[in-house]
Amino acid sequence: MFRLLALLILCSLSAQATERIEVWTYHTSPPFANEQSTGLSEALVALLNEHPSNHARYFFVLSQLPRRRLDARLAENRPGVLLWATPTFFPPKLVARARWTSPLLCDTQDFVSPASHPFDYEGPASLYGQRLGGVLGHYYQTLQDDIDKGRIRREDVHSDLQNLHKLLSGRIDVALLPRSARYFYETTEIPPARLHVSDVPLYTFQRHILITSSLNPAATQFIQQLITDLPHSARWQGLLRRYGLQRMNAPCTTY
C-alpha cells in the first residue's frame, strides 16, 4: 500500500511539473500552415516539445488565431508565445512589454511576375497601370498611400497560391508574395522558371518568436536559449529543407 501511495504521489508531482504553454500563430497558409500536411508552425511546436533539453517540463500547445483575437491576447498580456512575429508589424503599445527571441527566418516581400512578362520594381510609381495582387488583410508599407488614392490598382484574394494562379493565368500583372511562400510553392506547385522576381523587394523582415512578459522567467529562458541554438540543430535545418526555406536562415545580411 505504501509503495502504491508513493507511486501515485510521484505521478501527481510529475504531472504538476509539466507546464502548459500556449503558442499562437495567425498565419493560415504555407509554409506555416498546411491543410494537406504538417505546416512549419506545427513542426516547430513538436520540436519544442520533443527537444532533449525540455525534459517534459513544458508542453507547448498550438492555436491558430485571427489577428483580432491575437491582438486581444497581447493586450491582456496573456502568458504565451507568438510564432513568426516581426516587431514592426505590431503597434508599439501592444508589444512594449514583450520579449523577442533571436530571429528564426529572414523573409522578404517580393514582387513576382510571369517570366514571359517580367516586372521590376522601381518605387511605387512603377506600379501605376499594373494590376497588383495582394492578400486580404495585409498592409503593404510604402504602397498604401498610393493604393488608398487609387494610383495603384490592388486586387485581393485569400491566399498566396490564389495570387500565383491569377498571375500565371494573366488576370493580374504582378503579385506581392512573401519569399517563404514562394520558396515553398516552387517546391510543390510552380516551377521557378515560370516566375520572375524583381531584384528590388518591397521590404525585408525577420521572423522571431514573441514571448509575453507574463510568461514565467524559466520558460522564457528555455525558449530564448533553444531558439538561439536552432541554427546548429540538425532537426531545424532538416525542417528548413523540407519546406524549401534553407536559403532563409536568419539574421538577414541586408536587414
From TrEMBL:
<protein>
    <submittedName>
        <fullName>PAAT family amino acid ABC transporter substrate-binding protein</fullName>
    </submittedName>
</protein>
<keyword id="KW-0732">Signal</keyword>
<feature type="signal peptide">
    <location>
        <begin position="1"/>
        <end position="17"/>
    </location>
</feature>
